[in-house]
Specification:
By secondary structure, this protein is α/β, with parallel strands linked by helices. It is built from 9 helices and 8 strands. The protein has a single domain, classed as Aldolase class I (TIM Barrel), CATH 3.20.20.70. The longest helix has 18 residues, at about 55-70.
């Protein structure tokens, strides 16, 4: 793994992801404030270019970067390396069909780079390519992300825990009723999307989740 001395690494705890389609009418900036005020440990901006103008994305990310920077919360931009660099984000997250980790590292050596993985082979490749952390999932069936692959279940999560030392975030279909099972299998960082941003009271939901996993 590359040296992370000049940037934050993947923190343990709850990984939040923004998405206006699931935020009960709240804007991404408003939701980001609620997440940060609620004590989220790391925050990712995730929107798609066919649904939101990239100039609007840039403006939102600039505001969210201010919010996260003021609270010391690492800020990750999904997919869009250019926006991550322009707003001074802490990192970028890529999928299997996005820019390869090696290319991102070449263009932005100071960014934390996360990579979504769904199989042991993808995890091994991400580690070899120098990813700073990997996404492990979807653990359970999820409708939050478009074109998502089938749930990988606990088998793949157990493989990563047993095989790799790279930091990882468990993601996909994780809710209040199953988060403890994910944590008990060795996931130190856990991502929940709709379970948090679709909650009427985001701060209270984060508090509830922390209580469930014993934080």
């Amino acid at each position: 793994m590359t040296d992370q001395s000049d940037r934050p690494g993947l923190p343990k705890g709850i990984y939040g992801i923004l998405g206006e389609a699931f935020s009960l009418g709240r804007s991404n900036v408003e939701t980001a404030r609620l997440l940060v005020d609620g004590g989220i440990d790391i925050l990712q901006y995730r929107e798609k270019a066919h649904k939101k103008d990239r100039r609007d994305m840039l403006a939102e990310c600039r505001e969210i970067r201010k919010i996260t920077a003021g609270a010391g919360v690492p800020f990750i931009v999904n997919d869009f390396l250019d926006i991550a660099l322009m707003v001074g984000a802490d990192g970028v997250h890529v999928g299997q069909e996005d820019l390869p980790v090696t290319a991102v590292k070449q263009l932005a050596p100071d960014l934390m780079v996360g990579c979504s993985t769904h199989t042991p082979e993808q995890a091994a490749r991400a580690v070899e390519d120098g990813a700073d952390y990997i996404g492990v999932g979807p653990v359970f069936t999820t409708q939050t992300k478009e074109d998502v692959c089938d749930a990988v279940g606990f088998e793949y999560l157990d493989h990563v825990v047993a095989t790799h030392s790279i930091p990882f975030v468990a993601i996909g279909g994780i809710k209040r009723n199953n988060i403890k099972a994910v944590a008990d299998r060795g996931a130190a960082t856990i991502c929940l999307v709709t379970e948090i941003i679709s909650a009427p009271d985001i701060k209270e939901r984060i508090k509830e989740l922390r209580n469930i996993i014993g934080e």
